[in-house]
Amino acid sequence: MPVWVQAALWGLVGGSALLVGAAIPFFANLPQRLIASVMAVGSGVLISAVAFELMDEAFARGGFDSTAAGFLLGAAIYTAANIYLSRRGAKHRKRSGFRRHEKQPDVSDGAGLAIAVGALLDGIPESVVIGVSLLGDSGVSIVTVAAVFLSNVPEGLASAAGMRRARRSPRYIFGVWGAIAVASGLAALIGNIALAGSSEELIAATTALAAGAILAMVADTMIPEAFDETHEYAGLITVVGFLVAFILSKLGT
Question: Which H, E and C letters describe the chain, residue by residue?
């Protein structure tokens, strides 16, 4: 199977978690603390993937300069885009519920679109990393794919629940998240094709850029929402997720 096809399929696997999450409110009413715990585990897994998969790989390929520049640039780009979208209703796009004193976002006033675009913003760096990881001979990073999947499930659940409260049809909800899942596969494919044959420094900078965006996303959206429900247990649960990913990364070496 061509490598670019593998990249697209693995990117689609990671993005398909959005559909899994979106389907949950139609079949089960899970406690918010359980969803937040999944978010905390996903945060730990993503942090581990950034530290031991992405940054190590970027440094080995391009050295400190390319890695540092890409890492900071990725965080800056993500932060600027996240601020813009947060002011338009996507601030709590990973939340599984809303407090009584909070205004529930109405997708008719643009918040639903902002949430969807925010999910796309979260998913692009992750998908590009999946595509880039296949440029070498080591194959796809299962730890990275698992981290992407775990972070997407609660996001799809939270956003779909909000769209249901706004009386959006199942066709609309699954159409939105299906399109974003496909976009994740395309991002992995484009990342693989665009960087094939590129210099080691450019691949390193791109990998680090995605790593910076992912870490900024974890700090800006996932950890705050996880802590909001799990409170004093968020740190422990995050550490468990980090440890599991760390073990998996070492078993694969």
Answer: CCHHHHHHHHHHHHHHHHHHHHHHHHHCCCCHHHHHHHHHHHHHHHHHHHHHHHHHHHHHHHHHHHHHHHHHHHHHHHHHHHHHHHHHHHCCCCCCCCCCCCCCCCHHHCHHHHHHHHHHHHHHHHHHHHHHHCCCCCCCCHHHHHHHHHHHHHHHHHHHHHHHHCCCCHHHHHHHHHHHHHHHHHHHHHHHHHHCCCCHHHHHHHHHHHHHHHHHHHHHHHHHHHHHHHHHHHHHHHHHHHHHHHHHHHHCC
